[in-house]
């Protein structure tokens, strides 16, 4: 009996025009480290009358569709992810391009994501997928970076062959995690050892509209949010004083390979929440603070992602 393996799994993606209509044409092959996309649908007890103490014949619950996708921090493929998360970019340049994405866009695109296991002849089309959350982490570690994307969708359909046409494959431009840099108000933010930014579109599955099936009729946009945490060595009171004041400052995370190859995340107005500074033993003391972002008039956004690479656009052929 054939065994499906992760190393042979194919993940293809293409934006779709309508929520419940799978995309057609040539998909883009997406590098994926791991995923948990899928339908979940439980049962609900439907006890009635004098039928004894034992449950009988449960009814199907409403279905939910979603999961997480972890992708490499790749300067080429990240544009497809950011397009789904933040909407279409403003692109400039020639030969070397700069793509600027901003939070707050309306509408956001739907995607068909096909996960293929050719060994067992199963190709699952995940339909109506939207990118709800993204987690970015800057720290000084070896190896390559990655980004985790939280998804919501309509449903999945099992196929016996790929529906992705002639998939477009692009070279990987993976970025080492140790290239990360952090800035406060455009100046290096000293002594920070870790910073995590968690963005959310606040998406909600619409299960209110009657549509004759257990799947949502649409995905509704909610209020976006930007939260996270920042950890620094306690060598001075700079970070502590920021938390005490509660004043906003511009926070920037950057992964730069060169002047023309980079991913830069800017949160123009971030506040740190006040917290204690524990001592947990004889070693060096570290201070950890929660953070939250907000819309800033200076940038007309809460989060700006700037991607520099050699790709002219992120439209499908």
Radius of gyration: 22 Å
Distance between the termini: 38 Å
Strand content: over 45%
Shape: globular
Segments where pLDDT lies below 50 for 5+ residues?
none
Overall mean pLDDT stands at: 93
Query: H/E order of the elements?
Result: EEEEEEEHEEEEEEEEEEEEHEEEE
Contiguous helical run count: 2
How would you describe the overall organization of this protein?
This protein is mainly beta and 317 residues long. It has one domain (6-309). 5% of the residues lie in helices and 45% in strands. The protein has helices at residues 78-86, 238-245, and strands at residues 10-16, 28-29, 34-35, 38-40, 43-44, 59-60, 64-72, 90-94, 96-102, 110-117, 122-139, 146-152, 155-159, 180-184, 187-188, 192-200, 204-206, 218-220, 225-233, 249-258, 261-272, 286-293, 304-309. It has a 19-stranded antiparallel sheet that branches. Strands 5-6 form a two-stranded antiparallel sheet. A hairpin with a 2-residue loop joins strand 20 (249-258) and strand 21. The model has no long low-confidence stretch (mean pLDDT 93).
Please outline what is shown here.
With 317 residues, this protein is mainly beta.
